Amino acid sequence: MLLLAALAAAPAPGPADLVLLSARVWTGDASRPEVQALAVRGGRIVAAGTDAEVRPYRGPKTAVIDGKGRRVVPGFIDAHTHMAMGGFNLLAVDLRFAKDEAEFTRRLGEFARGKPAGVWLTDGAWDHEQWRPARLPTRALLDPVTGDRPTCLSRTDGHMMVCNSVVLRRAGITRDTPDPPGGVIVRDSAGEPTGVLKDAAMDAVWTVRPPRTRAELREALRTALKHAARFGVTSVQDLSGFDDLAVYEELRSGKELTARVNFRPSLSQWQKARDLRTAMRQDEWLRIGGVKGFVDGALGSSTALFFEPYTQDPSTRGVYAAEAIPLAQLEERVAGADAAGLQVEVHAIGDRANAEILDVFDRVSRKNGARDRRFRVEHAQHLRPGEIARFAALGVIPSMQPYHAIDDGRWAEGRIGRERCRGTYAFRALLDAKARLAFGSDWDVAPISPLAGIYAAATRRTVDGRNPGGWFPEQKITVAEALRAYTAAAAYAAFEENEKGTLAPGRLADFVVLSRDPLSVPAAEIEAIAVDQTVVGGRTVYTRR
Fold it and tell me: Rounded to an integer, what distance in angstroms lies between the CA atom of residue 104 and that of residue 140?
């Protein structure tokens, strides 16, 4: 009987397509957490073990990677990306690191001079919190250098933009235009629009801005995929629109995908997502994984929804933003999508937004009956202690982006005070409460690099250097815990734990070779580690030169 069992467990004969030898492989697999070598055939791992165990899989045509003792980890899974937006920002004017208003205008002017008259200038990813004093840009910074080119530049968080006068005229935004539900038109002391539009107020621009062409989307996604490979990202859970999905299908047909895409369109279009999921081919490269909704806005634009007023602006507690629908209507959408078998994730940043979406998830679960649904809260940024415990109790996944903690930590206390910030990106408390913590980047809002995210989660050292011991250091987690949140836990968050996130026979052959070992170097040095090689399905898609 033992012989028969051994024969049944043996892999199929024949050489591997690829072998990795002489490495230090962190598998994420509890049954064999560390191995030296891997063998890959047909895009999947067929053996994981010592060099001696794997060498027999080497044939005359087998590709060989010499690990040279380097650390190898499962391919990083980014649980929250906006790939097209990231690609467009890579192709646009780079305003992210403009240190002040003068540099903002200079960079924009240099970029604009190279563009034809009348062309739209978009994206940009500016961050006014880097300026001293930190104040919002206005159309007065744009108008002198953009001329007749319509210009609408998004802040890094995507929840507000600044437009020039050309765009305001085309969108019909004047001093008499009321704030739309779920949005804010920022005005000067005389009541005139400054050019800054928050959340639903941006919709007026979308109605007059030409849609992206198929060719533009294709270029943006190709650019984004190349960028992701450089940082070891082998799978993305992409929160985008159906136009992007059509381009992804083209790229899959042409075998151009270098990362696996779990696509997640808007909750408002859940019926279309349901129907397309049935109609289109779902495979390990491209699938519709769920739908995403919104409760509120963002802390940076003071539109995240809180129980108490903002410290710097007591006139507001935030808004129900983005989709600008009543909470009851949001709940109807959640219930409908869930009943259709779609996984539902909802953006919630403020403490009230998080409390209310957990209530919604609880009610929908009771209404639709028990099943493994894995509701998700995207960001889960500001939590009261009671909500932290509810994530595990309700089986809701906190899908979080650790780099935000060290970025927002520069200025968050100015928005809501120190006491409320104690529950900001509460990684340690959520893990201790037994919640399933999944990590992503929210790229292009933050860098896509998972190593930067792991550094952030393990150190919580803000990017301004003012918190060398960590911003609210009690919320730090270990490097291994952060690594798991970017691999096995991120796979679980998308119902993909049987395919990826760990390196074991039968799993997809997605792995990353690192220049140094994040598990052994001081956590403060992790940010400097480079990706030497990214392998997806046994195919090398990036090699550091």
Answer: 12
For strand 376-379 and strand 343-348, is the pairing parallel, antiparallel, or unpaired? parallel
Nearest by Cα to 516 from 498, 501, 528: 528
- Confirm whether 104 is domain-assigned: yes
Decide if 330 is inside a domain: no
Pairing of strands 233-238, 121-126: unpaired
Number of separate domains in the chain: 1
What sign does the CA torsion over 322, 371, 235, 512 have? positive
The answer to whether 368 and 338 have CB atoms below 8 angstroms apart is: yes
Report the C-alpha gap between 545 and 530 in whole angstroms: 11
**Cβ neighbours for 462, distance < 8 A, ≥ 6 positions apart:** 406, 407, 409, 410, 471
User: What element of type H or E holds 214?
Assistant: helix 214-230
Tell me the residue range of the domain where 201 lies: 83-206
Q: Beta strands 260-263 and 233-238: pairing type? A: parallel
Domain annotation covers residue 99: yes
Residue 147's SS3 state is: coil
Contacts 24+ apart (CB under 8 A), 92-97: 92/121, 92/122, 92/123, 92/124, 92/125, 93/121, 93/123, 93/124, 93/153, 94/124, 94/125, 95/124, 95/125, 95/126, 95/127, 95/153, 96/125, 96/126, 96/127, 96/156, 97/130
CA separation for the pair 420, 250 (Å, rounded)? 46
CA distances from 45 to 12, 24, 40, 48, 154 (A): 12, 16, 4, 7, 42
Write the CATH number for 125. Answer: 3.10.310.70
Buried b (16+ CB within 10 A) or exposed e, 236-248: bbbbbeeebbebb
419: part of which helix (H) or strand (E)? helix 418-421
Contact 340, 290 (CB under 8 A): no
Sign of CA dihedral 209, 213, 216, 220: positive
Q: What is the mean pLDDT of each run of 10 residues along the chain (545 residues)?
A: 39 84 97 97 98 97 98 98 92 86 93 87 84 90 92 86 94 94 92 93 90 92 98 97 96 98 97 97 98 93 94 92 77 98 97 98 98 98 96 98 97 96 98 98 94 98 96 98 98 98 98 98 97 98 96
**CB count, 10 Å around CB of 59?**
11
Would you call 294 helix, strand, or coil by DSSP?
A: strand
Q: For residue 22, give the DSSP letter.
A: S
Does residue 118 belong to any structural domain of this protein? yes
- Asked if residues 534 and 512 have their Cβ atoms less than 8 Å apart, the reply is yes
Single-letter amino acid code for the residue at 256: E
End-to-end CA distance of the chain: 52
Strand 151-155 vs strand 290-294: parallel, antiparallel, or unpaired?
Answer: unpaired
56: CB partners within 8 A, 6+ apart: none
